[in-house]
Amino acid sequence: MNLVIGPLVMLIGIGAGITAIVLTIVLGSAGFLALFIPAVLALAGGAFVLRGARRSRLQIDADGFTWCGFLGAERSVRWEQLHQLLPPPPGSSRTVAIAELRDRSRIEVLALWESPTSPGSLLGAGDHSTAQNALLAAHREWLVGRR
How far is Cα 104 from Cα 140, in angstroms, rounded to an integer? Predict the structure, then answer.
């Protein structure tokens, strides 16, 4: 969704900039150039949303999995470190799984790639079964490959 919203906000910024230029030329008043301020803000805001949307992800590969949110550090777990994947505790709407590492420490895999204000998050427990199943299948595949 944010992949659409970011460019639309940028498009509004471009429209505001064009409007500022046209009104300044047609009406001969430099006061309309003040519209460049919201135009630049819209361009910057749209670019920020687009960058965050492209950055937010859950990536599963042969070495492990990585998840990253709109902001903040990228987190990853290598298959060699992972002991098992546990289901999320009841009532946690943004937890996809709990990764229990070989040293018995636990890391919550949060659905950072989804907005906390999305309707799925606000209406209760989000359905993360697709991501859970993908993680479990990839871990099973890695385990089979080691034998």
Answer: 19
